[in-house]
Amino acid sequence: MFVRRKPNKSGTWSVQVVHKTDGKYILLKSFGSSKDEDTLVKYERAAIAFIETYGGQKVLDFGEAERHKQERSDVERFFDSISDIRQDGARLILEPIYNGIGFDKLGDDTLKQSFWRYPAYAGPRARLQQLNILSAILMRI
């Protein structure tokens, strides 16, 4: 469904709402004809209003694109601000294990820092190896 201006034999232009079905144009409503551009614009506005209300027809609001773009940039900015979560996440997960083994009683902060940060920076194979070592230590306790 769309608005069209159709030229008439008399030299005027008709403003119509047309629907295309099976390759044929079906006239739904004619809003008038004129040679005056201002009158034609007025008819076109009336035709657009008709389309918005006709038979539950939904009109896509492309003004929403700007709002979605702003929301997307807000989300990206949010995720960019949490780029260091891997280090803190490793500490939150491994600190109870570290304390449960009893390493906190040694008083060596260097060992503590390397214990927390190693899994965050190591590759998958190294992480698996460290988890195997930790599980072996836990099995002995």
Account of the 3D structure:
The protein is of the alpha+beta class and 141 residues long. It has two domains: 55 residues; 56 residues, no CATH class. Helices cover 58% and strands 18% of the residues. It has a three-stranded antiparallel beta sheet, covered by helices on one side. Helix 3 crosses helix 4. The longest helix is centred in the middle third of the chain and has 18 residues.
Tell me briefly what this model is.
With 141 residues, the protein is an alpha+beta fold.
What sequence of helices (H) and strands (E) makes up the elements? EEEHHHHH
**Integer average pLDDT:** 77
Whole-number radius of gyration?
Answer: 35 Å
Which strand order does the major sheet show?
1-2-3
Instruction: Tell me about the largest β-sheet.
Output: 3 strands, antiparallel
Low-confidence stretches: none
Would you tell me the structural class of the helices and strands?
A: alpha+beta
The amount of helix comes to 55-70%
What is the tally of beta strands?
A: 3
| Overall spatial form | rod-shaped
Query: In the residues, how many domains can be counted?
Result: 2
What is the end-to-end distance?
76 Å
Strand content: 15-25%
Report the total helices.
Answer: 5
